[in-house]
Structures are given as structure tokens and as C-alpha cells.
Design goal:
Elements lengths: L26 H32 L2 E3 H4 L3 E3 L5 E12 L4 E7 L10 E4 L4 E3 L6 E3 L41 E4 L7 E3 L5 E11 L4 E9 L8 E6 L3 E5 L7 E5 L4 H4 L27
Parallel strand pairs: 2-7, 9-14
Antiparallel strand pairs: 1-10, 2-3, 3-4, 3-8, 4-5, 6-7, 9-10, 10-11, 11-12, 13-14
């Protein structure tokens, strides 16, 4: 009873003479709609993440920082050694060979050997590189002198590569990739733009795609990272001193200070094309 009037029921006629049916709260319907929308959102997010993962998986660009000092094993998981360094031809940026150190798991002993870049592949978990050799493949073999690095890969190991190893011209300028890491980047007037922290390397083309340049920050904290196309860089000394070489880039500080860089934990597949607009290929 409410104010002395009986509460209408499903059998109580309404004002229009029709039976009155209690209104069921639509909370349940709202919940179903919410769950449906949430499911769609989750499916779309997973689809996007899967697509990005597949795209990343298809990428042939590797970080030089992932390769240097990487453990090398054979297909049985036996320890073979470490990647000591890679050599690159200037100014083309072509990878000439990988220098394999057969140091033991403790980092002791070992020799140095030159092998084709295509001879190496990643393990499934990408924690090690795989080389299709026997555990004692390099025992009794003569390596090269660490003070005199060869200009090309040893032909004796050419069969290990999936592609023909690159043979640079006799007068080619061959340098170790680690010797280019940490080199300053400046413009033609000597203004500092940043420092090279590593390189993006195309595994299929066996060449450097871009240099990962850091700018700003304190001891690496807060720095911005930019992918500078290899073609946009020119390695030389602005004051003709051998010990003062740098990468010269046709750019200025404003080209970076108000621009967004890339995530250092997620390197891109190519360099930023905006740095190519003023590139002079003849200088390379």
C-alpha cells in the first residue's frame, strides 16, 4: 500500500485500459552491451599487436649492438665463441665479414676468424647466434692476427654463408664497426649534433642502413635518438686531423631539438628520409 492506493500489478489495468507490465531495469542489457564492446576492443588490440609483431618479424634490419659480443653456438647448442666485431667498407657501408672469436665461455683464449655475415642466424629466443659448424671446427686452424685485420672474409669458410661473401676492391677502405660507434656527428661548420650509438644493418643486403644518433641528455639519460640514413653521413676530419674524424651531416640543432626521435628500445627499420633531402652523394 502507498498512500492508501493499491500497487499496480501485471493484472491491474492501466489508464488506457491495457494491462500494466512492470518495467524491467535495463542494467543487464547495458552490461551485455559493455561486454560486447570490450570484447571487440580487445580483439582489435590483439589483431593490431599481432600485425605489428608479424611486421617486425619480417624486418631484415638488425641492431649492431645486438651483434657485437653476442654468444655463438652451433645447432647442437655447443659453445663456439663470440662475435668480436664486424668490418665495413667505406663509403658504401657494405658488411665485409664477421670476426669470430673462439674464446671459451669464460672469455679466455681463442683465435680470430673471418666468416661471411650470412653464415650466422639467430636462435629462436634470439639470445645467441647459430653457426653451422662442429664443436671442434676451429681447433688446429690458424686464425688472424688481432693487430692486422684482413680485408676480406676467408674463402675457406665461404661455404657456411647462405650468400656469396662480399669481396671489396683491393683499394677499399675497411674499418671495424666498433671504431665507428661513439663517433661524433657534426655539421659542416663543426656544430655538434650528437653521437653515434650503433647502426641498423640490413641482414639481406648486408649493409648499414642508418646510424642511431643520440642527442642531449645527461650520461645517456633523457637523450633523443634519431635514425640518420647512412647515405646522409660523410666520415671525415673537419680540421684534417686523423684523431678528430667525425660524421658530417647537413643539418642544424633545430632539426632535432623540436623533433621527436625513436624509442631506443624499439629501433626502426629505416632511417629518417628528411635527412636525405640535402645529401650530396658525390661527397660519399
Amino acid at each position: 500500500m502507498l498512500n492508501g492506493n493499491p500497487r499496480p500489478s501485471a493484472q491491474t489495468p492501466g489508464a488506457d485500459g491495457e494491462s500494466w507490465v512492470p518495467r524491467v531495469l535495463d542494467t543487464e542489457q547495458h552490461m551485455k552491451t559493455f561486454v560486447s564492446l570490450l570484447t571487440v576492443a580487445v580483439v582489435l588490440a590483439l589483431s593490431s599487436a599481432t600485425a605489428q609483431a608479424e611486421e617486425k618479424k619480417k624486418s631484415t634490419v638488425e641492431r649492431s649492438t645486438d651483434l657485437i659480443n653476442r654468444v655463438v653456438v652451433n645447432k647442437n647448442g655447443d659453445h663456439i665463441g663470440y662475435v668480436e666485431d664486424l668490418t665495413v667498407e667505406l663509403p658504401s657501408g657494405r658488411i665485409v665479414y664477421v670476426a669470430l672469436s673462439t674464446k671459451n665461455a669464460l672469455g679466455l683464449g681463442g683465435k680470430l676468424f673471418t666468416l661471411p655475415y650470412s653464415a650466422f642466424r639467430w636462435t629462436g629466443d634470439r639470445k645467441s647466434l647459430v653457426l653451422d659448424v662442429k664443436k671442434n671446427e676451429f681447433e688446429g686452424m690458424e686464425g688472424f692476427d688481432s693487430k692486422t685485420w684482413p680485408s676480406m672474409a676467408n674463402k675457406a669458410w665461404a661455404k657456411l654463408g647462405s650468400r656469396t661473401a662480399y669481396s671489396p676492391p683491393k683499394d677499399a677502405r675497411i674499418v671495424r664497426l666498433t671504431s665507428l660507434t661513439g663517433v661524433a656527428v657534426k655539421n659542416e661548420t663543426g656544430v655538434s649534433l650528437g653521437k653515434v650509438q650503433g647502426f641498423g644493418i640490413d641482414y639481406e643486403k648486408e649493409r648499414i642502413v642508418y646510424a642511431a644518433m643520440s642527442r642531449g641528455g645527461i650520461v645517456g639519460v633523457g637523450a633523443k635518438y634519431f635514425a640518420i640514413p647512412w647515405e646522409a653521413l660523410n666520415l671525415k676530419s673537419l680540421d684534417l686531423r686523423v684523431d678528430d674524424r667525425c660524421f658530417v651531416l647537413n643539418a642544424n640543432p633545430p632539426d632535432f631539438d623540436d623533433k621527436e626521435g625513436f624509442d631506443p628500445n624499439n629501433w626502426p627499420d629505416k632511417g629518417s628520409e628528411r635527412f636525405l633531402k640535402n645529401t650530396k652523394q658525390s661527397e660519399k
